[in-house]
Amino acid sequence: MEQKLYTRALKFFLIVVVTILFFFPIYWVFSMAFKPFPEWTAAAGKIYWYPHHPTIDNFRAIFSRKLEMSPIAGTAIRPIVNSLTVSIIGTAIAMVVGIFAAYGISRYKAGGNLPFMLLQLRMFPPIAILIPIMIMWAFLRMIDTWYGLVIIYGVVTLPFSVWLMKTFFDDIRKELDEAAIVDGCSNIGAFFKVVIPLAKGGIASTALFVFILNWSDFLIALILTDRRWTTIPVHISKLQSAMVGALYGPKAALAMIAAVPPIIFGIMIQKYLVRGLTFGAIKK
Amino acid sequence: MLKKQIKLEERGKMDTARFGFFMILPALVFLLFIVIFPLLSSIYLSLSEWSPLTGGGTRWYEAYKFWGWLANYWNILRDVDFLVAILRTFVIVIVVVPVEFFIGLGLAFLFRENFTGKKVFYSIILMPMMIVPAVAGFVFYMLFQAQGPVNSVLSALAMKEVSILWLQGKASAIIAIMIADIWQWSPFMFLILLSGLLSLPEDQINAALILGATKWQRFKMVLFPLMKPVIVISLIFRGMEAVKIFDSIWLMTTGGPGTATESISVYMYKHGFKHLQWSWVAAGGIIILIIITLISLQALKPIREQEEKQAA
Amino acid sequence: MAQIVLERLIKQFGAQTAVDGLSLEIKDGEFIALLGPSGCGKTTTMNMISGLLKPDEGNIYFDGHSVVDTPPGKRGVGFMFQNYAVFTFLNVYDNIAFGLKVQKLPQKEITERVNEIARLLQIRHLLRMSASTLSINDMQRVALARSMITKPKIFLLDEPLSNLDAALRATMRVELKKIQQESGQTAIYVTHDQVEAMSLADRIAVMNFAVLQQYDTPYNVYNRPKNLFVANFIGSPTINFFEGVYRKREFALSDFSGGVMPVPSKYAKEVEANLKQERVVVGVRPEHLKVRGMKNGSGPNLKAKIVSYEPLGSKTIVYMHPDGNPHAIVKSVMGSGYKPKLGEVTVLDFEERDVYLFDKETGELVLRFS
Fold first, then answer.
1. Interface membership of B291 toward A (CB under 8 Å)
2. Residue among C294, C275, B24, C91 at smallest CA distance from A162
3. Which residues of B touch A179 (CB under 8 A)?
4. Which of A26, A116, A282 faces B127 most closely, judged by CB atoms?
5. What are the chain C neighbours of B215 within 8 Å (beta carbons)?
6. How many domains does chain C have?
């Protein structure tokens, strides 16, 4: 149905307004990251809506060892490396376990209610199982280790990797597996030689999706790490303390570093976001 | 055809079932050790009155020495802070989820037709959802500072000095948190509702059009009923996540001022980690678990039905 | 119940022209078919008549009034979709009642009319059932009831029978026609199945590549096809085309070695006058072309080798290669029980009056020798 010009203009205007509102906070933190001290300090007295004298001092600050930040914080290099490490390994675990499980569910209807149990898992407030896990981990000396963190990441994102990969496997026609089996492949052979290559795109997208989740995690890392293995979000929260709470510039720089990968990956897998977020209940 | 069937049957039913089982085995192991076991120990702990502080050097598995049966449950259910935290969380959810829904729905309708730069606007509008929630919390912490942009804009609009101490006031802090949540998750609803809207059977809508239905009649009598499954799913999923709200609150107010912005998760974190009342928190966790499980069994019904429909 | 006039309708989608200057006049109460292959523009035309699409240029008149600016809901048309588009979230009763509910008619009247039409279409037993659980055949009746209950003056049907089992298709054809005649509606039926069009329509509008090829009665479309496309599209099996060259007294047909067909003296002058150039296509329908043994002497000497045949019960289709062109296929319809010898060379036998002559360059019919 074709519309009047007036309605179209109004709609467009609304969209622009909404887009500005949604973009502003992102813009704010990005611009903050490039502002020099006099422009971001709270004592400035006025708001600088854009960096008048853009600088990368803030980025230097968070990486330097000399910055007088709170002694509990230290430099940002470690958290960045940590975030990368645990996100990647956590994703790998969730993907491997998840792909096998998803295949079993998709082709062999294995596990009965397992998929829905995984869904219910997502409904628990994580804090409820994190306390006993923390106790367990403390007992096993797994606090503040990468492997302690990574296992939990694997479990917590398992529902997503299973459900997402299940939908991708469902999209691949069963006849292809059966054709491979008829040609002499074992069950597992058909899986590796036929299905996996066909599901490449789905695997990549699911991996990126899970990576975003791991990278964005806060509570789990907050509980299970201490000094050595803090991730970026935890590091930022540590810098919220009274002494350095007002260091907006450097913190914004760090925030920006944290924010950029998920945005990039998110846009890359835009097509599959709906599917991932609703556990395959909705496929565009 | 015959050869294929013979080969597949040769595999036999036993074989297929076994293979399927092995495929899900790793996932089951994970769940067993990292979900079931902690859950059981949580129940065990909750029934004791042990805490690392008062336990005097004992290990957690020796908590039976401090057995208290349902004492924790009884006490926690009478703890005003706990009950208020639950209430507060549900109030937040009841407010933000519908708001996010309507914003998302409105945007979805605006995005039905094409217009210049649609893809760019779409990507930008989706961005808040992709921001690390802790970072979003930090950003809004900055925005809601007394000298920050929010007050600046309000001052400009009201044409006088507006200097609300957002994060220091009990009510204003909650509002700030709600605004942050709405900002971050409206795009989520938008994404899902738009998908639903675009996958509606166009023919049925055209049929209604030709039968004389006005725009409003088409919405009420055709579009809305057709969208019900998607709407339900979006509300359930968003509700599910909203109840767990923690990151943004912690970065903005750490539950303060005082306990004014403590959600369930914040309450339990504080009591678990600041006060180390592990068994107390374990009891709280179990209670929440029970409530959520009951709600989820009801809420997940439509999703199971959807799955069964798709499998058929 | 209304006369429809389409005046030079043009519709484009980006660079593609879907309908190019279509003009058509449909009489009050007439049942016409829009016939053509996929992509010819018939559905687009239908959508413009219903109001779902707006033409880029041109006009549409119902009983003399231009309706181009009237919204679809107010044009008084009924529409049957190819996949029926029943409201899956409503039961059958609510589906049928929809058009009346939209008009906010009183409950009693709605119930009365729904029951009446349900009885007419024999679906009363389905009224309480959910529309999404119906069989395809029932769904079609529900869709029919839903669009008829508003008593539209014009009925548009978009390939409504293509999803039905073959057996039911024939029955429904008859029923549709009966309903249309009894109600006196003007009906437009879109299809790619020429059998349907031929059996149902008073007149057929044959379309191809966005352009109207011919608009005429079934008899004329079959017997006097305006061009090569129409001649080929109408008729099953498809017409045989022989390319050739006009040589004053005869046509030299290139598919046959040494094969010529004499120009009938009756038409010699007309052919000479109307043929603008020498390249022609001679058309003979398979049902007019018989297979003859080599022995008899009369008729044009066109030989062909039999390669296969299809015994279809009531008739047998014979496939042959003309002797001058082993890549071409000549079809002949013979009687039931006819069994040719494969590989046998025969002579093609047909009457002069069944020959169509086409100008190869324009593709148009020059004349039919009858």
1. no
2. B24
3. 4
4. A26
5. none
6. 2
Chain C residue with the nearest C-alpha to that of B204: C85
Q: How far apart are CA A70 and CA A92, in angstroms?
A: 34
Q: Give the Cα separation of C367 and B109 in Å (integer).
A: 58
User: What are the Cα distances from residue C284, in Å, to C178, C232, C287, C331, C356?
Assistant: 34, 10, 8, 10, 6
Whole-angstrom CA distances from B153 to A20, B4, B157, B161 are 14, 71, 6, 10
Pairing verdict, β C31-35 and C203-208: parallel
Half-sphere exposure of B248 (CA within 13 A, CB side): 32
Interface of B with C in 200-229 (CB under 8 A): 201, 203-204, 206-214, 217, 221-222, 225-226, 228
For C37-74, the pLDDT digits (tens) are: 988 889 999 999 999 999 999 999 999 899 999 888 88
CATH code for B71-307?
Answer: 1.10.3720.10
Phi, psi of C9 (to 5 degrees): -75, 135
Residue position matching structure tokens 């072309």: C289
Q: Is B306 on the interface with C (CB under 8 A)?
A: no
B18-71 residue pLDDT tens: 888 888 888 888 888 888 888 888 888 788 877 777 666 666 677 667 777 788
Query: Minimal Cα–Cα distance from B229 to chain C, Å?
Result: 11
Report the CATH fold assignment for A78-231+260-277: MetI-like fold (1.10.3720)
Find the CATH number of the domain harbouring C360: 2.40.50.140
Query: How open is the CA angle B26-B31-B34, to the nearest 5 degrees?
Result: 115
Predicted ipTM?
A: 0.89
Is A248 near chain B, with CB under 8 Å? yes
Cβ distance of B207 and C89 shorter than 8 Å = no
**Mean pLDDT for all residues in chain C:** 89
Residue B107 touches chain A, beta carbons under 8 Å? yes
Q: Do A266 and B306 touch (CB under 8 A)?
A: no
Domain end call among C217, C232, C247? C232
User: pTM of this prediction?
Assistant: 0.85
- The answer to whether A11 faces chain B, any CB pair under 8 Å, is yes
Are the beta carbons of B60 and A139 separated by less than 8 Å? yes
Give the amino acid at B171. A
